[in-house]
Amino acid sequence: MEKLTTKKKIAVFISGRGSNLKSLIKNSKLKKSKFKIYLVISNKLTAQGLNYAKFNKIKSFAIEKKLKEFENKSLSLIKKYKINYICLAGFMRILSSSFIKKAKIPIINIHPSLLPKFKGLNTHERAIKSKQKFSGCTVHYVSEKLDSGKIILQKKVKILKKDNPKTLASKVLKQEHKAYSEALNLIIN
């Protein structure tokens, strides 16, 4: 008889529209998925992604506070709900090294470039300006250095001559939606 495996509990941190969150929720409902979105935490009260959480009956919290207070409240929620992994999905704050240590669980991020190239912001403009032939996205573990943690998975897109930051962002986002769930299912044993 096949052993029933319980899906790992995921907390997703967001700041905005939540398109990666929406994709993670959709993929978590697939039979082959090894994870379930259990908690959504936003640092913005107005983050649209909170609506996806509510619509899908996922516990969600908006904590618009100074970083230390945000982190303390988030840590207590993570412990309370026995979360196994934290996914940063369009979360526009840099977590402190203290938070990373205290969480004691893997923290994963998705970044819209082929790391180690173009860490930080404005990745699409920078990729086009420096005449890159490819861009893409990277799912990686969060470490104390910005966008420098161990890479889990990358997806590439070709940069065409007609691309601008907006069209490139759109192409990369489609790959992000595939890559994040794929990476999670890869690392969950």
Search tags:
36% helix; globular; seven-stranded mixed beta sheet; Rossmann fold; 189 residues; 2 domains; alpha/beta; single chain
Question: What is the spatial order of strands in the main beta sheet?
Answer: 3-2-1-4-5-6-7
Number of strands: 7
Task: Report Rg.
Answer: 16 Å
User: Architecture of the largest domain, CATH level 2?
Assistant: 3-Layer(aba) Sandwich
Fraction of residues in H or I helices: 25-40%
Under CATH, the topology of the largest domain is which? Rossmann fold
Q: Would you identify the regions where 5 or more consecutive residues have pLDDT less than 50?
A: none
The H-level CATH homologous superfamily of the largest domain, spelled out, is Formyl transferase, N-terminal domain
Mean pLDDT: 95
Order of helices and strands: EHEHEHEHEHEEH
CATH class of the largest domain: Alpha Beta
Describe the fold and architecture.
By secondary structure, this protein is an alpha/beta fold. The chain has two domains: 1-105, Formyl transferase, N-terminal domain (Rossmann fold, 3-Layer(aba) Sandwich), CATH 3.40.50.170; 110-189, Formyl transferase, N-terminal domain (Rossmann fold), CATH 3.40.50.170. The protein is built from six helices and seven strands. Strands 3-2-1-4-5-6-7 form a seven-stranded mixed beta sheet, with helices on one face. Strand 2, helix 2 (49-55) and strand 3 (59-62) form a beta-alpha-beta unit. The longest helix has 23 residues, at 165-187. The mean pLDDT is 95.
